[in-house]
Specification:
Length: 520
């Protein structure tokens, strides 16, 4: 099969599996992995090996960039303590626990190899968990914490992985050098992301062509990633920070540019997320053959993999509960500012450690001569399978069993914001009535429209005379003025912390679409 044929086949599979996932009400990543597994068992299908460069250089940058773009900086800062405890503390704790278990079961790994395996399987993949939560409607703070964790934990794990691999290859390790390098890699990644974000902001501000502008946003994550990797710093953080900055850059563009960019990015993320999880499933025959060789018995490797998977799951549970409650118990100031959360919410976070593409890509990137490389790859695959499919399928059941329901904060904030923006528009209409006395009829229509947001009136003019054309332009100016008034009002609500990023995005998109309908 030609490569182009294989790509088209995979795209067709991704589309079909997405429909299946929606019909079954199951998280798409789970269905993608299972579908890839089934596809890999089709007789006559050539074995497939996922190149690590494809994951790190093609898939990860836009996925990380988008994660940063859709993350609320305010919510991130408000939940900084739990996010740091998960993204740094839990990742290192999981790596340590896995290293101890792996070294006890497979002494041939050595401590460096065991820590490398721990770093590989330590970072959860938030895509699968958050897609489940969005469908179930869990409290927004749980999603915020998991999304915030995913922004940083990959960087923590990959830096630890880099040091472990270097120690295994060189047979030496310096804690001081590792600590200094860790800081340099993280700070360097932040700096590169800020520089790329600033450059994109400046470029977008000077470009009016929508197609070129959208192309720049699509290239930005690769610029951040490649720039950081070239300098030897964290490409993960560079892509994430670039995405965080991108939100500010897009705010100053036109409605047309934002709507087109949103559509382009939605399509790109749909394809990349689908392909990467299907490709994980397609790895099964290659991974099994690598670890078994000529032998038919896979049970020894399977026993090791199941023990590591259990260690990964238990380590998260053991960490999350004390990390949630001990700081509040020990420091009254924290407890007053952020009271004890319900244990059911904590249990959901503890059960949400689904692994994904970063773990598999890191395992594939191991040097060919690395000790027990095939076993590490097999264990990594089984850990992904056990958490992504096993926990992914049971997570909705756990959420319902614990009675973790949705809070209505987002819906309430959105309703409040829409009321405030409508009131701002109505106040502006009173001012415009004095500025445009010849257009009293339109002013009254607009007043009724904003008093009853459910009904939308658009005037259509067939007169082609100059006077009619001028009237049409003036009507458009009045409407655009009102839309700008609403936009300023919702931005003000966001700046004052009354609403969050998600509500801002919803209303901003509605205003953009309304402006485009007006210009159509």
């Amino acid at each position: 099969m030609r490569e182009i044929d294989a790509v088209l086949l995979l795209l067709a599979v991704v589309t079909a599996l997405t429909l299946v996932a929606r019909r079954l009400g199951v998280s798409p990543p789970v269905v993608m992995v299972v579908g890839g597994l089934v596809l890999s068992l089709v007789p006559g299908l050539a074995s497939f090996t996922l190149p690590p460069d494809l994951v790190f250089s093609v898939f990860l940058p836009p996925l990380l960039f988008a994660a940063g773009y859709f993350t609320s900086i305010r919510d991130f800062k408000a939940n900084l303590r739990p996010i740091v405890l998960l993204a740094f503390g839990l990742v290192l704790f999981t790596a340590l626990v896995v290293a101890i278990v792996a070294h006890a079961l497979v002494p041939a790994l050595g401590w460096a190899g065991a820590f490398a395996l721990g770093a590989i399987v330590a970072p959860p993949d938030a895509v699968a968990a958050t897609s489940i939560f969005q469908r179930l409607g869990v409290p927004r703070r749980l999603v915020t914490v998991l999304e915030g964790e995913s922004l940083v934990n990959d960087a923590t794990a990959l830096v630890a992985y880099r040091f472990a691999v270097a120690a295994a290859v060189a047979s030496t390790f310096s804690l001081l050098d590792a600590g200094v390098s860790f800081v340099v890699v993280l700070v360097g990644g932040l700096a590169v992301g800020l520089v790329v974000g600033w450059l994109v902001d400046r470029a977008i501000a000077r470009i009016a062509d929508t197609s070129v502008l959208v192309a720049i946003t699509l290239l930005a994550p690769y610029a951040a990633w490649l720039g950081a990797e070239t300098l030897g710093v964290s490409g993960v953080l560079a892509a994430v920070v670039g995405g965080l900055y991108g939100r500010r850059a897009m705010r100053g563009t036109s409605s047309d540019a934002r709507v087109v960019a949103t559509g382009a990015w939605q399509m790109l993320l749909f394809v990349l997320n689908g392909l990467v999880f299907v490709l994980i499933g397609l790895q099964l025959p290659t991974v099994v053959r690598a670890v078994t060789g000529e032998a038919a018995d896979v049970s020894p490797a399977l026993a090791v993999a199941l023990a590591i998977a259990a260690a990964v799951i238990v380590a998260r549970i053991v960490w999350v509960f004390p990390a949630t409650y001990l700081p509040r118990w020990a420091i009254p100031r924290i407890r007053r500012r952020d009271p004890y959360p319900p244990w059911r919410h904590v249990a959901v976070v503890a059960f949400s450690g689904l692994r994904g593409v970063v773990s598999l890509a890191a395992a594939l990137s191991l040097p060919l001569a690395f000790p027990e490389r095939d076993l590490i790859l097999f264990v990594t695959f089984l850990v992904i399978l056990a958490t992504l499919v096993g926990q992914g399928l049971t997570l909705p059941w756990v959420v319902r069993l614990l009675g973790v329901g949705s809070d209505d904060s987002i819906a309430h904030d959105e309703a409040h914001a829409r009321q405030i923006t409508s009131e701002a528009a109505l106040a502006r209409i009173d001012e415009l009535a004095a500025v445009w006395p010849a257009h009293r009829e339109l002013i009254e229509v607009l007043r009724a429209q904003y008093e009853h947001r459910g009904s939308h009136a658009e005037a259509h003019h067939a007169d082609e005379h100059d006077a009619a054309e001028q009237e049409h332009l003036e009507h458009a100016e009045i409407r655009r003025d009102l839309i700008d008034t609403e936009r300023r009002a919702v931005f003000d609500l966001h700046e004052r912390g009354v609403i969050g990023d998600e509500v801002l995005r919803r209303i901003e998109r509605d205003l953009d679409l309304e402006e485009l309908r007006m210009e159509a």
